[in-house]
Design a protein that fits this description.
mainly alpha, about 160 residues, globular
């Protein structure tokens, strides 16, 4: 997949990733922007997850908070309701998809990418619990193809300088 300069993937749209991915990114985007407890999100989780709704929402909030505050890099997100998907959002879908498949190593690898470091064990457990809520409600996330080619500028933190041995 190719990525635009603003972080969006070319020719990847949310409906193609399935209802599970749609609910996951809808709630993640809302939580990241401080709208986690708005009536639309709370009601959406109640209708989607039933009695498990409040716990599922709390876990999505915890995942969002950890990725947003403990990570070593910025995560690019689209606005809530946007059909386009960023590469980072596709990684979030991959976290839940691999957790639904019970592939802890792959789930942790995606979390490591998003955090730019090793994920806390509790975060991996939270991702698996969220995936369980989605699975019990019949919401599957389609495993995305993550062969994304980007052109990144050279690191501004490291530079190679000419020198002599």
């Amino acid at each position: 997949k190719r990525m635009t300069s603003d972080g969006f993937l070319v020719d990847v749209f949310l409906p193609e990733l399935g209802l599970g991915a749609g609910v996951a990114l809808w709630s993640f985007r809302a939580c990241a922007r401080g709208g986690a407890k708005c009536c639309a999100i709370v009601r959406g989780f109640q209708e989607t997850f039933g009695d498990r709704g409040p716990k599922a929402l709390d876990q999505v909030i915890a995942l969002t908070k950890t990725l947003g505050t403990d990570g070593g890099r910025y995560i690019k997100l689209a606005m809530t309701g946007c059909a386009r998907v960023t590469a980072d959002e596709l990684s979030i879908v991959a976290v839940l998809s691999s957790a639904q498949a019970r592939d802890r190593a792959l789930c942790d690898a995606h979390l490591s990418w998003l955090l730019a470091g090793p994920p806390p064990q509790a975060l991996s457990a939270t991702a698996h619990e969220i995936a369980d809520h989605f699975s019990m409600s019949g919401l599957q996330s389609i495993a995305p193809n993550l062969e994304i080619k980007t052109q990144r500028p050279p690191s501004r933190r490291l530079a190679v300088v000419p020198g002599h041995a």
